Amino acid sequence: MVKPCYNNGMYKVINKIGNKLYECADLDQAMRFAREWSEFVTITGPDFEVCGMFGVDSIQDGKCPDGVAYDWNKASRIGRVKKERV
After folding, report:
1. Domain that holds residue 38
2. Residues 14, 51 contacting (CB under 8 angstroms)
3. How far is C-alpha 28 from the geometric centre of its chain's CA atoms?
4. Sign of CA dihedral 65, 67, 68, 72
């Protein structure tokens, strides 16, 4: 696989279908844009690639900022043997 060429450490924000939405010089700017965009995106940089929906800051009253219920519980997933998880 050929890695993309970036000039001076550019970061690109790309949507699901591969369209470049934004390009900037630092990761903070790219993450701020991705957060405001509020959709699934990929941020590519000189050394890495990260994807997802950016912007969940906190859980309040069991809900994400967009109102979706947050029910993930780390305690219920630690220490369980594999046969119990399946």
Report:
1. 11-85
2. no
3. 13
4. positive
